[in-house]
Here is the input.
Amino acid sequence: MPIGALIHDMRKAKQWTQVRLAEKLGESAGRADGSPSADMVKRWEREKVIPGPFWLSHLAKVFAIPLAQLEAEARLSDVKRRSFLTLGTLVAAHGTLAGELVSSVAMRDPGPLMAVQTTHGTDIVIASWTDKASTMNLRRWMRDGEAPILRVNAAGILAKQPGQDQAFEIARVLEHDADVRTLYMTAVTSRVCALDWTTAGRVVSTPSAYAQQAHFLASRFSAEALNPRDAGARWCSSVMLRELSPLIGWSQA
Here is the structure.
């Protein structure tokens, strides 16, 4: 549940107004000035602002719920806000690098795509700029590139092309290329679940070790499995849901 909705529902469950919740938080924090304001509570609930660590700790206290739950929802809400940026905003943030990579793809130079795994935002920008000839280059590198990082970068860009025309081929590569599958699934898990790369890799390799978090993780992958902009993320999320589903009842037992 998004952090804003969680705060709203917990407040309603206690039959508090936004003013009353602000007062409770001020009392908990020992703030003589009565902060935060009711307007700040409203902005939290609408997710115009994500509460920081200080107020999360006091929200957990006044609502009597685990701080870890609030922290997890706050991280995911922040990631969600950033992941729904418009293409124009993404171009502003990633346009320079994306432009350089688009040029290298057009010139059939795989070198830049072998340097480092590209980000989700960069892939979206590149995918929106690729032409037919570049798409053919990316398809060849995805299937036969000499390095796993080249193959996964090519797959990641193709997976985000408008129209999703390469979805079937991407699914086939992810199914049969273990190195690409591991890199792609780790990237998706890191982004969707707001985890660092190392932890995301552990979730992918050993889901059973995260039985206590299975419900939380599955809820994230359930949403990503419907992502209309990333065929690879849909495939990876479906696989993770398959691995996590037997653990959900156990994790809540």
